[in-house]
Design a protein that fits this description.
There is one protein chain. Helix 2 runs antiparallel to helix 8. Strand 1, helix 3 and strand 2 (about 75) form a beta-alpha-beta unit. About 35% of the residues are buried. Helices cover about 65% and strands about 5% of the residues. The chain is mainly alpha-helical. It has a 4-stranded mixed beta sheet with strand order 2-1-3-4, sandwiched between helices.
């Protein structure tokens, strides 16, 4: 009961104040939501393609119609070749093509037909567009060759090809692609990374409150009260844990049910991993506080610890992009294990398969909390 009273007092001194409520609940939730809005969601992968159709026959129009049905292209018709080239040069489009005059007649006569392409350099969009154009033209050539082998000439050949194209445009038999969303958002590590950084900040603040109590001799007077030392220690750490847990719940609730961000894993599984990281963060903060003699230096020391460990742990960029020696060092920061566990569960693994990640985070917490337990020694009050 005494431990719970101490924990609630910690909540009152941190989150239940106007400044603490804004700094550690509203602002983190708003910041993570803003990050989701800017870069967290999947972007439209369609590319802009400009075109001109100078063909007077039906094959040119059919080619435009077929390309417009492809989900990866957004076609933009231009009125002149100069306008077409200008769009390519100014990079308003990824590529462009021009269907020449007589395109249909060349195919009907059995002559090779070609579509002119415009591009600044070879890229994924231009290469796939080239493949799509070649595939459609080859299909038209096969169709006209088939009817010519049946000795159809001119008007009869034209009529047969047009009827075939009309049936092809109906797409009575086609493949249906269903996107089940079974992939991990490539920007999710940024969302999780900033969430972890805010969690570490609020834990650092609660540890600073304990240091302030030690400096003001409040902690020493608490230990002289008729309360067991174990209850005092448990109350302080339980208070810090409750503060961090409340922040986690608020951020997850806002990002999941207000901004509707899809993490790809259950709420409970993500919450449990973040709670294990919360314990590791408490260990880091208490270990740093145990080595600092003045609470005024706490914010400076934390900035020298939180930011580098977040960089190493993959909060701002994937760990795989770093050199090999930095990837090995990343194993010694808890951020890396928390982000990796959430990404693995988002890709289909279960919480029970994350036993190693939870074990490593627990080991971080036990070792660092043991080192940082010196902050609860009232006799070691700082000078001044």
């Amino acid at each position: 009961m005494n431990s719970l009273y101490i924990a609630m007092n910690m909540l009152r001194r941190t989150l239940f104040q106007k400044k603490g409520f804004l700094m550690y609940l509203l602002i983190p939730a708003a910041a993570v939501s803003l990050i989701i809005g800017v870069m967290g969601k999947q972007t439209d992968n369609r590319v802009d393609i400009a075109y001109i159709n100078k063909d007077q026959g039906t094959l040119g129009a059919h080619l435009i119609h077929e390309l417009s049905l492809l989900p990866e292209y957004r076609l933009q018709e231009q009125q002149s070749e100069a306008s077409l080239k200008e769009h390519v040069v100014k990079q308003k489009v990824s590529a462009a093509f021009q269907i020449p005059d007589g395109f249909s007649e060349s195919l009907l006569q059995g002559s090779p037909a070609q579509v002119d392409m415009f591009q600044l350099n070879s890229n994924e969009a231009s290469i796939t567009l080239k493949l799509a154009l070649d595939s459609q033209i080859a299909r038209y050539q096969d169709t006209t060759d088939l009817f010519r082998k049946q000795s159809l000439q001119e008007a009869a050949l034209r009529e047969a090809v047009e009827k075939t194209l009309t049936q092809m445009e109906k797409h009575q038999v086609k493949a249906q692609i269903t996107d089940l969303g079974l992939y991990v958002n490539p920007n999710m590590h940024i969302v999780i990374g900033f969430m972890l950084m805010f969690m570490m900040s609020v834990i650092n603040n609660t540890v600073s409150v304990i240091m302030e109590d030690r400096r003001m001799r409040t902690l020493a007077r608490t230990f002289t009260a008729p309360v067991r030392s174990l209850e005092i220690i448990l109350g302080n750490f339980l208070g810090s844990f409750l503060v961090g847990t409340l922040q986690v719940v608020v951020i997850l609730f806002v990002t999941r049910y207000v901004t509707h961000y899809e993490y790809g894993l259950p709420f409970l599984s993500q919450f449990i991993i973040l709670e294990f990281f919360l314990l590791a963060s408490m260990g880091i903060a208490s270990a740093v506080a145990g080595m600092v003699k003045s609470s005024t230096n706490m914010s400076v020391i934390n900035s020298l610890v939180v930011t580098p460990t977040c960089m190493l742990g993959g909060c701002f960029w994937p760990v795989s992009l770093m050199p090999d020696w930095m990837q090995k060092i990343a194993n010694f920061v808890p951020q890396k294990w928390a982000i990796e566990a959430i990404q693995r569960m988002a890709s289909g693994q279960t919480l029970s398969q994350m036993w190693m990640h939870m074990g490593v985070l627990t080991l971080f917490a036990l070792i660092l909390l043991g080192i940082g337990s010196v902050i609860l020694r009232p006799a070691d009050a700082e000078a001044g």
